[in-house]
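To the team - flavin-adenine dinucleotide complex, inputs and output below.
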Amino acid sequence: HAGDGQPGTEFLRLDLRPPGQALAGRAQIQAQKFGARLAISRMVKGLDCSGHPYRLLLEDARAVAARAVVVASGARYRKLDLPDYERFEGQGIHYAATAIEARLCPGEEVIVVGGGNSAGQAAMFLSRVAQRVHMLVRAEGLAATMSDYLVQRIASTAAISLRPRSAITALGGTGLLEEVTWFDGPSEHSVTRPVRNVFVMIGAEPNTAWLEDCLALDGKGFVVTGRAADGTPLADTFASSLPGVYAVGDVRSGSTKRVASAVGEGSVVVQSIHRYLGGP
Ligand SMILES: Cc1cc2nc3c(=O)[nH]c(=O)nc-3n(C[C@H](O)[C@H](O)[C@H](O)COP(=O)(O)OP(=O)(O)OC[C@H]3O[C@@H](n4cnc5c(N)ncnc54)[C@H](O)[C@@H]3O)c2cc1C
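Output:
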């Protein structure tokens, strides 16, 4: 993990010839040759699905008609409100606990913030490598927010220390994160520990407000795919409940929140669109 604060930092750093921007420029020219019209940096304010083709309403009050739409508007990870927080994103603050992040943690003290199932799974996973996992939750406990089986597994895992009524108050380090201070509920004291990796698992908010009530969203607002409005399975994994509208990447309910999977889903969905539009 190169840890430069940019998403996708574990990707191989290739010495690209031409560099990325030029490559993207060429791809743009090629797409235009095929008749694509690009409207980069236009926010979509709304989707009018009252007729077909659909109409995408742009922030500059213009509209674009489309027979098929791919929703790839991503999600915003909830962050902690702390001084210097942004400086430590990618330098010790993580939003996912995969094998990649786990490699940073052998023998370390780490913190998982959050009391939901994803926080619980992260704590269990990290407890296999970390010396200690401090699990900080604002509530009295986990029962109201986490599945029973996970609550029990956490309680019986010696390497996990559950800290209810606790919250981080300060982050320290000159470049990378080096230490973390938190208010510790059980002892009612401020605690500072040499923690270099903090996993913030307090949820993500999908960028789906612009979809209005056009298609099915899950309880957290992510786009449901692979199921029609009445719940029957659809042949296309990335099809939403609204015919001709697809969702890929972070915005899709149940997707793996990683760059590689988002890119992969984006390439796979093209076939579905071809089929939908009656292409070869
Ligand atoms: C700090 C951080 C570090 C991360 N590190 C890694 C990592 O090391 N490795 C990894 O694999 N993943 C990492 N991730 C996750 C990774 O960034 C995402 O999984 C990936 O970017 C998802 O791609 P996406 O295209 O679905 O969404 P995004 O990359 O979020 O792209 C969505 C785009 O849609 C735009 N948009 C949103 N709403 C609208 C609208 N209404 N109109 C027009 N445009 C809109 C947004 O501005 C954005 O440009 C990290 C995420 C964060 C926040």
